Amino acid sequence: MCLIAVRWRPGSPEPLLLLGNRDEFYGRPSAPLGWWEGERLLAGRDLRAGGTWLGVTRDGRCAALTNFRQPGPPRPEAPSRGQLPARFLEGGLSASAFLEVLRGEAGPYNPFNLLVFDGETLLGYQSRDGRVIAFDAGLHLLSNGDFDEPWPKAEALRRRLAAAPEDDGALLALLEDDHPFEDARLPRTGVPLDWERALSPIFVRTPAYGTRASTLVRIGRETVSVTERRFGAGGPEGHTAILFPRGSPSGGPRH
């Protein structure tokens, strides 16, 4: 994911709502949202490295990942960051215990931000400074900088999400805005200005790279739902919505 919004309401009937866009090269193959082997983990899958950018489990665990933008290409020898959400979701460690282990193992990876929810506790991890973030109740945004860093597209999504209706379609529509922001408001991450401009919209669209998936996750006390809209260079490519009882032994309806 390259833009994530979370509405964190611990103690409510729906503790976690997550809304996000995954930006990636169109040529990088990926599988759509679906149940992985054993049907415990629900996620899309990067078919090149085998990991994921966002997933949930039957008992309501959730994890999501963004890369940290910096100048220069990523180190090609580094392990895949997409393995980290899958490791958390397929394991049984609490959010805090998992991040404590990860803190000692994060060095070989290219910089990343990881959001983890173990069913009760929501935490974030910034690999570039080894910081663990505990979130207050409310709206939190993450792009390719630090957690809650006020990038223009993150702040625009924050404002719109605060005023949006609860309808899933209306929430997903917030992720479709492809208007760039003016140069004076762009972050300075060390990449060329034309690339900062191209990456500035909520929905990214360039000839070779862009928003590949928009996803809405609702984790309630009783149910979990995930809706994914997929895109390619030519436009929309598919839609999947899955709803299941939290803690269920098998998947719920798919439509």
Walk me through what this model shows:
This protein has 255 residues and is an alpha+beta fold. It has one domain: Penicillin V Acylase, Chain A, CATH 3.60.60. It has helices at residues 83-90, 95-103, 152-163, 168-173, 193-199; strands at 3-8, 16-25, 30-35, 41-46, 54-57, 62-67, 112-117, 122-126, 131-134, 138-142, 209-219, 223-232, 235-245. The strands form 2 sheets. The protein has a 7-stranded antiparallel β-sheet with strand order 3-4-5-6-7-8-9, with helices on one face. Strands 10-1-2-11-12-13 form a 6-stranded antiparallel β-sheet. A hairpin with a 7-residue loop joins strand 4 (41-46) and strand 5 (54-57). The protein is globular.
Topology:
Blueprint: E1 3-8, E2 16-25, E3 30-35, E4 41-46, E5 54-57, E6 62-67, H1 83-90, H2 95-103, E7 112-117, E8 122-126, E9 131-134, E10 138-142, H3 152-163, H4 168-173, H5 193-199, E11 209-219, E12 223-232, E13 235-245
Antiparallel strand pairs: 1-2, 1-10, 2-11, 3-4, 4-5, 5-6, 6-7, 7-8, 8-9, 11-12, 12-13
Instruction: Report the structural category.
Output: alpha+beta
Number of domains: 1
What is the percentage of strand-forming residues?
35-45%
CATH class: Alpha Beta
At a glance:
This protein has one domain (3-245): Penicillin V Acylase, Chain A (4-Layer Sandwich).
List its traits:
255 residues, alpha+beta, Penicillin V Acylase, Chain A, seven-stranded antiparallel beta sheet, globular
